[in-house]
Design goal:
Shape: globular
CATH superfamily: Transcription elongation factor, GreA/GreB, C-terminal domain
Structural class: alpha+beta
Strand content: 25-35%
Distance between the termini: 25 Å
Radius of gyration: 14 Å
Largest sheet: 5 strands, mixed
Number of strands: 5
CATH class: Alpha Beta
Number of domains: 1
Number of helices: 2
Order of helices and strands: HEEEHEE
């Protein structure tokens, strides 16, 4: 069992250092200082409490692989784009609707 635990710890470290991925919570800020937080999920859930975006969505695609300090362009629902800086990427312990 110790080997399994060690492997899980190594995978967790790899996921964080590799950038945002499935289940990651990504915090971003724009030039005006407005902040947003997104969780990257495999599919949407009807009972979402926080802002969740699928990996296949334009915002999800823009955030996939992002690391703190990266600048990305996200597409807003009205079609406009917003350039944001990634301020934090954390891993959420849930299955993120994989």
């Amino acid at each position: 069992m110790a080997t399994s635990t060690r492997l899980m710890e190594e995978l967790q470290t790899l996921r964080v250092t590799a950038g945002a991925g499935l289940g990651s919570v990504v915090r971003v800020a724009d030039r005006a200082g407005r902040t947003s937080e997104f969780q990257l999920v495999g599919r949407p859930a009807p009972d979402d409490v926080r802002e969740r975006v699928t990996l296949a969505s334009p915002t999800g695609e823009a955030l996939l692989g992002a690391r703190p300090g990266d600048y990305v362009r996200i597409t807003l629902p009205n079609g406009r784009q917003r350039r944001v800086r990634v301020t934090d990427v954390t891993s959420d312990g849930s299955n993120a609707n994989a």
